[in-house]
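Model: Ready when you are.
Researcher: Fold this.
Model:
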Amino acid sequence: MSADVLLHEQRGPVLVVTLNRPAVRNAISGEMMRGIADSVERAEQDDTIRVVILAGAGEKAFCA
């Protein structure tokens, strides 16, 4: 997966996953969907993560 398609930032018990395709209004591709699933699995396996926030990059749309 392209490193730029999803951004991850852990802030204490919060994992922020940002859809990072603002040029196409963060439309979810197959690659991005697999990455989201991997992120959820990561959170399920890590006892320090309590919350996952799914965010969208850019200002036009969260996700198309």
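Researcher: Now this one.
Model:
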Amino acid sequence: MGLTCRMPIIELISFARSGDQEAFKSLMRSHEGGIRSFCRRFTKNPDDAEDFVLETFVEAYLKLNQLRNSEAFAHWLRSIAHNLCRSWYRKQ
């Protein structure tokens, strides 16, 4: 829990885009609770929800350069989680 925890989200995203893994970990820590809650409500299964939390952050990491508005990171992240959960639901 260093300096990255106190940085504004725009700076964290900028550093994460540059390959700073600590900055991305800080983004994860600050958003994983909300993503976990969303996935649990959607799947009704804690194990499935945990899988989607991890998948959400993997996908976000891989697509971070596609994020157009850094201020909308939380919404963008939730959209990724929603799409993953919805895809899983359709397969059920």
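Researcher: Key takeaway?
Model: DSSP finds four helices and no strands in the chain.
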